[in-house]
Amino acid sequence: MSDLKFAQVFAPSTIANISVGFDLLGMSVPVIGDSIKVTKIKKNEIIIKSIHGDNGKLSKVIEENTAGKPIQSMLFDAKVSWGVEIEIKKGIPLSSGLGGSASSAVAAVVAMNRLLGDLYNKEQLLEYALDGEEIASGARHADNIAPALYGGLVACLHSGKVYPLSLPKEIFCLLVHPDIQINTKEARDILKNEISHAKWIEQSSCLLGFMTGIALNNKDIIFNNLKDVIITPQRKHLIAPFENIAKIVEKYNGTDLGISGAGPTMFSLFKSKEAAEQAALNLGDYKTYVSEVPGAGAFVEKEG
Ligand code: HSE
Fold it and tell me: Which of 46, 54, 139, 303 is buried most deeply by CB count within 10 Å?
């Protein structure tokens, strides 16, 4: 067990799905993130002391909070006699498609683990953090959790195994965040249960192309295959400016516009920072971010 009294951890925003891998691929885009401070208290209870940056929308009930729930499970399993107080700073806007619930869950488990003397390994932390993701989206998909925890680009297989992957150097991501909110559960509920044989083959080819580009470290193959013919066509009507923004990124040689997670944030990859920034300048009033990808995962900001 550790002598630490508190630990404060930052976990980054992430892009889930990355167009070709619905629920299976995610990467860290550390432009913003959530920060969670966990402080030991004598009494064996868990208190959410404060939440900033959520406009009062998040629940302080432990079982309903994406940071509280995983901490509750970790404390219970570790059978310790003390409790914790949790302070949450949301840097990621709610329902933005940038993995905010995952970021809070990951920062919480990493901070809690420091207080427990690094009792749990990363695979175990991933499982605990998924308890938090399940509250937000109704499913245990790891495509935001794994990149927020491990950093980088991560394949999250159906078996539950996760594998960090490498991307070629100098890939720049433009994120475009329109000022709307999309509820992840609702954006999952609208998806059809069946797809045609032809679409299945077309999408499999895109995923295979993307993975071939990774295996050969070839940016062109990755970029040319970054297409989604199944999920994006079913969700893009939720994001009014989607088609206009798609035309602009195409003009600046960005990859096909993708939806980050369930949206509304959209993303496109570029070969140069300048091209991504030029595209951003021509988008009008949307909140935009440009960052080299993929970025780092969660890290300890302070402890003592
Ligand atoms: N893979 C998930 C989805 C990510 O697109 O529904 C959102 O949390």
Answer: 46
Catalytic residue flag (residue 170): no
Q: List, for residues 15-36, the tens digit of each pLDDT value.
A: 999 999 999 999 999 899 999 9
Domain ranges of the chain: 6-164+295-303, 171-293
Structure tokens at 302: 């302070």
Residue 5 contacts residue 39 (beta carbons within 8 Å):
yes
Q: Is 123 labeled as catalytic in the residue annotation?
A: no
Question: CATH assignment of 6-164+295-303?
Answer: 3.30.230.10
Output the CA angle 134-135-137, nearest 5 degrees. 65
Cβ–Cβ under 8 Å, residues 49 and 183 = no
Binding-site residues, ligand 1, Cβ < 6 A: 16-17, 22-23, 137, 141, 143-144, 184, 187-188, 261-262
